[in-house]
């Protein structure tokens, strides 16, 4: 990626970070409220509705939605991390259980060999 592309990405990330705060929502609300008295003075329903929709809602909700998305993504990230940690814990438990099972299997094989040896000895003594 060229330097202009890197600059654009950094600038975009910075602006997104700044706009996606409640402080920015408060600032946008204050800016929007500056034009409210003029809209009300017109006594025109269309102008007032346009002010609400185009000025207030678009400015203020942009930041609030971005804050909400950030909160939700952090919640999802936390759940993913918790699930990952739990999965790693389960994996370690499974590895330990497998190790124990392999040790027990090796011990059973040793016992089986010993039992077969004893049975052969007994069979040899009975035949003789």
For the largest beta-sheet, the strand count, sense and barrel status come to: none
Strand content: under 5%
Helix fraction by DSSP (H/I, runs of at least 4): over 70%
Give the number of helices.
4
Structure classification = mainly alpha
The end-to-end span amounts to: 89 Å
Dominant shape: rod-shaped
The value of Rg in angstroms is 36 Å
Which stretches of 5+ consecutive residues score pLDDT under 50? none
Report mean pLDDT, rounded to a whole number. 92
The secondary-structure element order is HHHH
| Number of E strands | 0
User: How many discrete domains?
Assistant: 1
Could you explain how this protein is built, in words?
- It is a single chain.
- With 128 residues, the protein is mainly α.
- It has one domain.
- The longest helix is centred in the C-terminal third of the chain and has 83 residues.
- The N and C termini lie far apart (89 Å).
- The relative contact order is 0.06.
- The model has no long low-confidence stretch (mean pLDDT 92).
Note the main attributes of this structure.
128 residues, mainly alpha, 93% helix, 0% strand, rod-shaped
Q: What is this entry, summarized?
A:
By secondary structure, the chain is mostly helical. It has one domain (3-127).
Topology overview:
Elements: H1 3-19, H2 22-34, H3 36-41, H4 45-127
Helix pairs in contact: 2-4
